[in-house]
Amino acid sequence: MKITHITNYFMEGLNYQDTELPIHQAELKCDVSVITSERYYPFPNYYASYKKILGDRIREEGNYRFKSCDIFRLKPRFERSSSSIVILPLFRVFNLLRKLSPKVVHVHGELSFSIFAAVLYATTSNAKVFVDCHADNVNFNYKSSRNARILINIFSVAHKLLSSKITGYLPITQASSDYLQEALKIPKEKITLLPLGAKGKQPVVNEIARDIAFVYSGKITREKGVLEALKIVQGLTNRNFPHNFSFNVVGEFGDATFKSEVLDVIQKLDYKVNLYPFLNFEKLEKIYRQSHIGMWIGTASNSIQDCACAGCIVFIGKSRTTSHLALDGELILDAGNVEDSVNKLGNLFENREKLDSLVKRSQEMINRYTWEEIAKTSVKVYQNYE
């Protein structure tokens, strides 16, 4: 199957869907290409936090081979870094599609202007066009911004007009599906969930013994629940379990005030906290494999599956974004109620049989969300749509 992905940002150094899905589709012997900009995502503080991992944000135009995928980098006509809006040269994208002649065009982003080029190509080739979606009503509150509402209104009309040429929509979560139906009026029958995957070796369980390391990675901001996670582990420490607790925190702080607050709390804790900057995946995976329990109890993160795939049992906050990873609520902790969360974890430590069973079920679940499995699912989805 010939597949072309169109994404605003393709970052070889980070295991995002835009990168991992094409790579693993190529491993299935698909003929895969990627059309993207000649730049990386405009993370805040890019040059302070990300350059050492990814290099310069602005790359070179041109094409090259990366892990069995053909990558085509184009200079965008327009980029607004503050809102991550990119407009690729649409006629160049269209001409590239004609040259590549894929049977499937996978556009990353329901608000991508490249949808127009993909649909134009589909009208001349009978190719299938799929549009994925990572947004939801939590991470993209379009109602609160006039510019966002205008953008939504434009694309709502566009999706309606182009509906006959867009084969299907592939939101990554149920929350994203809800957003597509509410904000862009996408019919439910055109939607198929395609979750994010996890990168790593075949999952193995990091056995929970006397020394227990908790872990979190990503942005260290108030909404991520890191402060509450630290307090929960302190609550466990206060209950005098026969364990030596520690906490590995990987990432960068969002602002100086919150950083000061977290560091002040850390100084008062009765267990060790290891702080690391952003790391490349190989180094991060090593920390995951040295840990036992992941704590992503605030807003959702791409790192949850990776941590679980590396052998940790991962506790998360209640959200439709990550409901498929919650094991019917057994892996949910309430960041708003530290005491209840301490009790929930404490009960597991007091019932080793129940804890071991939960760890086993967690690993069985994450086996369904490796990138290898998600790539297989994506190809089946492409094939099943007529």
UniProtKB/TrEMBL annotation:
<dbReference type="Pfam" id="PF13579">
    <property type="entry name" value="Glyco_trans_4_4"/>
</dbReference>
<feature type="domain" description="Glycosyltransferase subfamily 4-like N-terminal">
    <location>
        <begin position="25"/>
        <end position="197"/>
    </location>
</feature>
<dbReference type="InterPro" id="IPR028098">
    <property type="entry name" value="Glyco_trans_4-like_N"/>
</dbReference>
<dbReference type="GO" id="GO:0009103">
    <property type="term" value="P:lipopolysaccharide biosynthetic process"/>
</dbReference>
<protein>
    <submittedName>
        <fullName>Glycosyltransferase involved in cell wall bisynthesis</fullName>
    </submittedName>
</protein>
<dbReference type="GO" id="GO:0016757">
    <property type="term" value="F:glycosyltransferase activity"/>
</dbReference>
<keyword id="KW-0808">Transferase</keyword>
